[in-house]
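Q:
My hope is that you can spare some time for a protein that puzzles me. I hope you can help me see how the letters and the tokens relate. Thank you; the sequence and its tokens follow:
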Amino acid sequence: MTFNLLGKVRIPMEVKELILQAEDIHKATELISSKLKKPVIIENKNFELVSYSSAFDDFDQTQQKTILSKKCPIFIIDRLKKEGIVQRLDQQPDAIRISPIEDLGFQQRVVIAAKHLGHTLGYVWIQESDHSLEETDLHFLEEITPHLGKLIYDQFMKVNAKEGRKEELLWQLLQHEYGSERQFRHDASLAMLQVPDRFSVVVFSVTAPQYKYMLDELETTVNRFRADKQLYYLKTEFQIIIMIEGRVKDRFSSRNIARDLIEEVKRETGEEEFYHFLIGVGKEYTTLIHMRKSFLEALEVIETASFINPRPESMPREFARLGIYRYLAALYEKNSSEDYYSEDLLLLIKNDTEKQTELLLTLEAYLANNGKGKQTAQELFIHPNTLNYRIKQIQELTNIDFSDFNSKAYLYTELLLLNNVDNYYQRYKSAFRRDRRKSMITEAVMLHVEKGREQEYEEAFREASTYISSMDGYISHELKRCLEVDGKYLMLIYWQTLEDHTIGFRESDEYKEWSRLLHPFYDPHPTVEHFEKVDLG
């Protein structure tokens, strides 16, 4: 997946000197991007966003998620650690090229560690896309990254100083960048920062950059809400991070306050705009060292929601209730890489596609409600008898055993991906189309059109195509013009079964319109033949 990038060559000094003189990491980022003509992202050692180039807007899907959530997606970090890339970055000064991971929206890029005083403080990512960096560019990166490491360190110190001592201490809590708990509590006391004994961290992010304005409105709501609550918040470009203090002896009190806050935000924002928020609630803890853990848990909820793009209110916002959702990204990657499908679900997709049913969604709701019919029917807004009929259809079409817990659990995870991740559903649809083509019937017709009427015929064929494409059992069709003989065409129409053509279409009103539009052009009248695919092993 990766390889070392070596080779030391001289490069022009002008841009390099400007970067080495820069005291602002954002300016340095823009200079790097301008020189390399590539999108650039700089992250700290925890893979949290520090800076990104604004001159380029063609960031890939992974980088867009990093910019929105202020942190590299966890499943990407896990992949980098699994491949040993993070360890290699810490041990060597050279840049590393990472191959694309297409199903995760991760394009080819180069990454190099930014170090200061012998410690890795962050990483510089350059998205290569179609054109790889030259050796001079790689050497350029190796020369400037020590200065970038210092800028990352300086920025952290400047931001904290600017936001005030309380904010600085809160960031230290979230980043777990303090010496000892005793010293931290002493510093907090001097800053008049009340350290909570029971707490949860809540993070609000937005689904897209155009909704950043909503964070300003959210800040107003949070300030109003905390009039009689003990909470602190930090605001970044795309997030508001809230530390909620619970009552010391009241278990889950901080979580309950978080729920109240979310409901208040929903009322204030309005239901339609509310769902432009991505919200994560970390677990409740009573030990200060776990403040960062609660924060990372809240971020994981947001990253998961960003990955699957769930329907409103279908996915838990609390990490403690996230359950199987935590593993969807890993399952997506594994099943996609192995080209794995559930035959039962393929059958349901086939039925939904051909007969306009909703068996896939029905099965997900039925499994989510643990087979409770009344609750499932209410959730789907259908009559219980309709639900019973759909479940009976599912049982007749598939081998699903509703008494087998392991089978139900597996199907439910597949359904969460199918019904929430469009790429995953399209993968199934493609498999369904491949299977359908294996058994399809080909209608082949050699056509002779009266000379001089070819253009008129082709226009009529376009109109007639709407009639045939609406028929049950129709898959697709082609019209091919002969290169050697004027007025000669080959028409291929693909059907699921022979009867779909000979009975379903030939005995329909649509066929009458088809004949009216096309038959007057033929001389002589064509002969229709049907073919099936030969399995050559």
Summary: The longest helix spans residues 135-163. The longest strand covers residues 119-127. The CA atoms of residues 142 and 344 lie 53 Å apart.
